[in-house]
Amino acid sequence: MNSPACVWGCEFKVDAGDTLSISKLDQAIALQREALALYPVGHTDWSMSLNNLASQLSSRFEHQGNNKDLDDAIALQREALASRPVSHTDRSGLLNNLVNQLSSCFEH
After folding, report:
1. Around Cβ 16, how many Cβ atoms within 10 Å?
2. Could you give the CA distance from residue 56 to residue 59 in angstroms, rounded to a whole number?
3. pLDDT tens per residue, range 81-105
4. Which end of the chain has fewer CB atoms within 10 angstroms, the N or the C?
């Protein structure tokens, strides 16, 4: 199950200065936080919800430059990665996302 917040946030592309799009991204982040709060820790969709929220925060960082968004995204991505056993099929994607977010620290 994908969370409802992912509908706006996962494939979100924002033009610089597009406040309407940023507003939608902010709303998607808020909804993703609500969805995440509904999952108990360890739920099968919990780590992917963490991953989705991390991706949305990373996207907002790319467009607004708020370091807190990137720091939060990295922390959430680490938590998502830690919640999956080494042999889990999602781990490689989660690890790749964490690498991308860590790399963003040096691109800006």
Report:
1. 9
2. 5
3. 998 889 998 888 999 889 988 988 7
4. C
